Recover the amino acids of this structure.
């Protein structure tokens, strides 16, 4: 193997090993930290700080250990009671913090009705170290009815073989949750079992290509190094035939993806990068075989195998990076099945049963408690409440709904329990219609004309013309060498560097984005994002938090603002209303309140110490404070008043909060010459207000999902390439229809499903990083392509006039490929 | 140098053998989880 090739290979290898090494090192350090932390007063289970007044603890090895929360305490106790206390002695990392009551979720029972087989896989989260593997497998094999439990650490999947009659899936999930691991049944049909199989095949093809490349190099080197006349013809033929034997598997088995891809491209009539690759491999292999049999001309087997190996390697890395992104997205979307509390018999008796939302029938009565999502479209039968429609329509303020009003499925009940009469079954619901709209939008996505593929089409055409010209020219000069030179042209130009340029850069960039919190699931994301002329933002939940935040506190009584917020938070404890959440989030701590009583649409009252407070609308607070409220709130905000028996205390102004990084991100896009547009389902004036704050000139409000899609389609018709960023169910269709789209990680699962990429974390910053990475990726791809073109313009004429020896071609190819790979790997570096 | 006429074909056979072993290993799932066994070995106390 030439020095240049080994450089390319070791670069590619070190890319993967360094990641593994990084992981191992990180683990060792954290392990030391975990042991050291045993001494100080962190939670014994998860290592987080224990609150000063925590009364939670667990008895482990006879000693009482402090716990940060009831969840961790219960999990630790379950582990010790199960006889697995060794877990704590052997682990090298802290466990993830446990959510209390996780194991008791009644929805788990719904999995039993799904008819899962006795053999199946579960996705398990929170595996940190070797002890986790031991703990999970031991704990499960201890359950009656479980025959086998095997955890695949690489994929985070647990394979379980069980007696379906004795051990339902909910038992397994409950056991795992009891010891602190969230788990879900894994649906292989849904989550790319196809992709996994493809990856396995690719791994084998890569291995075969690598082995045959190394061995063929061994036979090629002596032939290259031998001085003229020192190697007899017999020996040369022996080396040639041995090379042929080992090249066969590389060409017939490993190169299948290229031949298959080229064949598909040709049938579609759109030659992509696979066509020149297949042509190069085919020509070099056939030409070498002919040369070997006739004894005239050169053999190129070493180039063929190296070419196949390098290309497969870059594809494997790219597929791996995208698979990691896809599985991170899958974990993000896992949730308990949608369920509903159906009322049995007399609705007044409040006798409920838990059923799957999909099984609800027309005219069923369901109870929707505060903080829960409405399971299906329906009409309020009893009660009145505020509903949060932010994900459905983009409206940021909650809406008042009373008996007789219709509610769409997916709305969140923010105030108090209501009884709902179901008016449509799941498949006819508002939600299902939005799903269908999004699916249709995805089908109508503009055809992607990938740049590299367009280049490839021209390249193929030019190359074929050139080969024919060279062949004809040599026919007149020296007919005996014409065939040989034509093959040399095909081999030398074999677009190794050209076709490596894109996948290696994309693999490195996808990996980098994953670490920055962007899951790029579709392969075209970066390229299209860089080309985008328009960036369209949704408002609620994307540019804003999608929930109110406390903007300002205006004290009007004797107490300071801080105290007022703490009193408000105390009164709002346990209230799921978005305004209550905002007040609680604004207070560092809250005293305890009792005698709390809610009045829907008015507010809340209660006692703190021996003082009576009211929090809510001005009229409600005036009921005890007397007089009238002074000073109106600024427009666009919601005001909540606080008062006590002896007078008014404070006014809280709440409004949907802009994300702190939204302005920076918008400014960066504008600086990059992209048109930024705000497209919202919320009212026009609300959209305009946000746009004005961010410096967005075009703001369009009041759009339904289909109107949003139509708007983007119109932009596309006018020649724009549209990047869409959204979060809600109402954005799913437009995300599917845009050229490239990003969904917020905290948004609706449906939106994420139809977006090309997902931003993890509750921040827009990753979007700016993605734009930067896209720009750098495309510039590296361009550098690579330019380099490949320069190499080809030098090498092809040299081959055409018959100057090139095979070994020169080999080194040239390896060298140019190494440069391309190393250049792409620069993307992995931070900065 | 005549030995090469024996050794080179032999090396081809060796590669074939290596491929056969690799495919056998891959079929039996040895490459499905490259991290788990390294963790499991530490706890094989019974």
């Amino acid at each position: 193997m030439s020095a240049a090739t080994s450089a390319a290979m070791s670069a590619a290898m070190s890319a993967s090993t360094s990641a593994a090494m990084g992981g191992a090192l990180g683990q060792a350090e954290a392990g030391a930290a975990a042991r050291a932390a045993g001494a100080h007063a962190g939670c014994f289970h998860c290592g987080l700080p224990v609150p000063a007044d925590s009364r939670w603890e667990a008895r482990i090895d006879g000693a009482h250990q402090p716990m940060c929360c009831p969840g961790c305490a219960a999990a630790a106790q379950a582990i010790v009671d199960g006889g697995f206390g060794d877990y704590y002695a052997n682990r090298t990392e802290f466990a993830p913090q446990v959510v209390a009551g996780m194991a008791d979720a009644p929805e788990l029972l719904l999995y039993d009705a799904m008819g899962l087989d006795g053999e199946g896989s579960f996705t398990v989260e929170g595996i940190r170290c070797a002890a986790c593997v031991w703990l999970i497998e031991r704990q499960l094999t201890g359950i009656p009815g479980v025959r086998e439990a095997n955890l695949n650490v690489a994929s985070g999947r647990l394979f379980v073989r069980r007696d379906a009659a004795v051990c339902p899936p909910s038992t397994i999930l409950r056991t795992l949750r009891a010891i602190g691991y969230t788990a879900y049944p894994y649906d292989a049909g849904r989550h790319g079992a196809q992709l996994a199989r493809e990856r396995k095949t690719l791994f084998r093809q890569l291995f075969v290509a690598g082995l045959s490349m190394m061995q063929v190099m061994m036979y090629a080197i002596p032939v290259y190094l031998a001085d003229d006349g020192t190697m007899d013809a017999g020996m040369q033929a022996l080396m040639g035939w041995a090379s042929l034997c080992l090249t066969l598997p590389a060409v017939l088995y490993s190169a299948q993806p290229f031949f298959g891809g080229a064949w598909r491209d040709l049938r579609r009539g759109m030659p992509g990068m696979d066509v020149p690759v297949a042509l190069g491999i085919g020509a070099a292999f056939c030409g070498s075989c002919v040369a070997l049999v006739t004894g005239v001309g050169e053999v190129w087997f070493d180039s063929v195998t190296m070419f196949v190996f390098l290309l497969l390697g870059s594809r494997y890395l790219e597929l791996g990076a995208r698979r990691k992104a896809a599985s991170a997205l899958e974990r993000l979307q896992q949730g308990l099945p949608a369920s509903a509390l159906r009322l049995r018999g007399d609705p007044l008796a409040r006798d409920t049963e838990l059923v799957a939302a999909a099984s609800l029938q027309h005219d069923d009565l369901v109870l929707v408690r505060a903080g829960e999502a409405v399971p299906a479209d329906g009409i309020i039968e009893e009660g009145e409440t505020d509903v949060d429609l932010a994900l459905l329509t983009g409206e940021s303020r909650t809406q008042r709904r009373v008996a007789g009003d219709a509610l769409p499925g997916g709305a969140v009940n923010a105030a108090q329990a209501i009884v709902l009469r179901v008016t449509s079954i799941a498949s006819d619901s508002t939600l299902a219609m939005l799903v269908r709209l999004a699916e249709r939008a995805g089908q109508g996505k503009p055809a992607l004309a990938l740049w590299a593929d367009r280049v490839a089409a021209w390249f193929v055409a030019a190359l074929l013309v050139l080969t024919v010209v060279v062949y004809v020219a040599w026919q007149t000069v020296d007919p005996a060498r014409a065939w040989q030179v034509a093959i040399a042209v095909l081999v030398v130009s074999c677009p190794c560097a050209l076709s490596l340029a894109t996948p290696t850069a994309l693999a490195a960039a996808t990996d980098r984005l994953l670490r920055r919190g962007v899951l790029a699931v579709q392969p075209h994301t970066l390229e299209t994002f860089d080309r985008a002329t328009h960036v369209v933002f949704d408002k609620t939940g994307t540019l804003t938090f999608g929930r109110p935040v406390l903007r300002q506190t205006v004290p009007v009584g004797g107490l300071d603002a801080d105290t007022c917020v703490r009193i408000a938070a105390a009164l709002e404890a346990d209230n799921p209303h978005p305004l209550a959440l905002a007040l609680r989030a604004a207070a560092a701590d809250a005293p305890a309140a009792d005698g709390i009583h809610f009045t829907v649409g008015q507010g809340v009252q209660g006692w703190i110490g021996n003082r009576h407070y009211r929090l809510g609308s001005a009229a409600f607070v005036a009921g005890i404070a007397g007089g009238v409220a002074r000073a109106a709130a600024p427009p666009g905000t919601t005001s909540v008043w606080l008062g006590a028996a002896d007078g008014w205390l404070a006014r809280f102004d709440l409004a949907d909060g802009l994300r702190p990084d939204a302005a920076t991100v918008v400014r960066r896009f504008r600086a990059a010459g992209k048109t930024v547009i705000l497209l919202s389902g919320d009212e026009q004036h609300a959209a305009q207000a946000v746009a004005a704050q961010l410096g967005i000139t075009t703001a369009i409000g009041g759009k339904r999902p289909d109107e949003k899609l139509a708007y983007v389609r119109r932009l596309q018709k006018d020649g724009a390439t549209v990047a869409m960023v959204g979060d809600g169910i109402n954005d799913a269709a437009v995300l599917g229809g845009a050229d490239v789209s990003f969904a917020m990680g905290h948004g609706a699962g449906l939106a994420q499903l139809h977006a090309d990429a997902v931003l993890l974390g509750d921040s827009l910053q990753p979007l700016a990083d993605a734009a930067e990475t896209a720009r750098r990726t495309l510039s590296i791809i361009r550098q690579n392509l330019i380099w490949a073109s320069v190499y080809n313009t030098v090498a092809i004429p040299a081959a055409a006039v018959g100057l090139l020896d095979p070994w020169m071609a080999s080194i040239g190819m390896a060298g140019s490929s190494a440069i391309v790979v190393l250049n792409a790997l620069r993307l992995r570096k931070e900065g | 140098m005549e030995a090469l006429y024996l050794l080179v074909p032999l090396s081809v056979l060796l590669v074939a053998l290596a491929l056969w072993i690799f495919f056998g290993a891959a079929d039996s799932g040895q490459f499905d989880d490259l991290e788990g066994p390294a963790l499991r070995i530490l706890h094989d106390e019974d």
Observations:
- The two ends of chain B are 56 Å apart (CA to CA).
